[in-house]
Amino acid sequence: MLQDMLRQRFLPRTITASSDTGRESGFVADGYDRLVSAVESDARLIIETKYADEWNANRLIRRWKLQRKMDAEIAVLVAEMMPGVSPDALF
Q: Using CA atoms, how far apart are residues 19 and 38, in angstroms rounded to an integer?
């Protein structure tokens, strides 16, 4: 299910004209960073939905503890959802 969500989400492509050939380049500026932020926003939405009722029922100190728990779960979920793409790959 999570993999399907990733496949449905497309990264916006930046197409720029090369100055010497006049052809378009298919490279995306900051492609890996955009991929990570897209996966992280999906994971954050899933985890925040999971804890929404508990978040609304608690006060400041418990929210702080809950935020730390949510951040840890988001990090785990991002690691599970990230495709096997090298940070050095060109996009």
A: 31
Closest to 27 measured CA to CA, from 83, 86, 88, 90: 90
Cα gap 30→10, rounded to integer Å: 14
Is this prediction's pTM over 0.70?
no
Strand-pairing partners, residue 25, are 16
Q: What is the mean pLDDT of the chain?
A: 79
Q: How far apart, in whole angstroms, are the C-alpha atoms of residue 30 and residue 51?
A: 31
Nearest to 43 by CA among 8, 85, 73: 73
Q: 47: which 2 tokens?
A: 């985890």
Reading the block at residue 29, the tokens are 């500026």
Q: Select from 51, 50, 40, 46 the least CA-distant residue to 75.
A: 40
Q: What length does the chain have?
A: 91
